[in-house]
Amino acid sequence: MRAMHLRHLSLVMIAVAGAAVLGAAAPPAYAGYRSSIAPISPAQRAAMTPTVWRKGCPVGLSSLRAVRVTYRTFRGRDAVGTLVVHRDVAPSVRRIFRSLYRARVPVRRIAPIEKYRGSDFASIEADNTSAFNCRAATGSGRWSNHAYGRAIDINPIENPWVEPGGTVYHRASRPYVTRTPRPGVAVSGGPLVRAFEREGWSWGGRWSGTKDYQHFDAGTG
Question: For position 27, what pLDDT does the model report?
Fold first, then answer.
């Protein structure tokens, strides 16, 4: 009887240990995600001035924050990038990129736009995801919401600016004029769009006429 009891106890312990191993083999989809929020450092201030920020911009550097996030690349690897946004939306950006990481939405790269000397065109050509940039809205004399740190352009090659008739300004974007669910592509109801819209951000893919599929906007506050 005692031998049977010991054998039963051993089987229970093996089962519990096996369950623990199985649980350890399946960590949460966001387990590798890390993020942080910090004021703009002196080195960042120097790098951003004057190509990305200058006197006369609608927000001061003290109102901006550097949000460091983990993201998944198109090769399925983890990478780290920093987005500069307004301090009011920095917590929201952390949550958005956590959702994207969890949903395995790939991002091509996140590099400081000063790397491209503030050139939106050059940043798009590199398929770079960017946020703050003290510039006017495309085709307008008014400030873009990027100049307030309240907009993000994500995977701009896969999510191009498309004019009526299908015109795009970056050759690599031509295959993406037709919107179908693909890795890193923003489509209505897809995980990329849902991650932003859950946080109250609007999407340029819902504009009438010209579409800006890369553009997500938190408004002027």
Answer: 58
**pLDDT for the residue numbered 137:** 85
Which two tokens mark 166? 């299908």
- Summarised one tens digit per residue, pLDDT across range 129-154 is 999 999 988 777 889 999 999 999 99
Q: What is the DSSP string of the chain?
A: -HHHHHHHHHHHHHHHHHHHHHHHTS--TTTT--EEEEEPPHHHHHHHTTTT--TT-SS-GGGEEEEEEEEE-TTS-EEEEEEEEEGGGHHHHHHHHHHHHHTT-B-SB---GGGGTT-HHHHHHTTB-B-----BPTTSSSBPGGGGT-EEE-STTTS-EEBTTTB-SSGGGGGGSS----TT---TTSHHHHHHHTTT-EEGGG-SSSEETTEEE----
pLDDT of amino acid 109 = 97
Q: How far is CA 181 from CA 124, 187, 188, 195, 197, in A?
A: 20, 6, 9, 15, 17
d(CA 166, CA 189): 22
Q: Extract the residue ranges of the chain whose pLDDT is less than 70.
A: 1-30, 221
How many Å apart are CA 17 and CA 11, to the nearest integer? 10
Task: Determine the pLDDT at residue 220.
Answer: 75
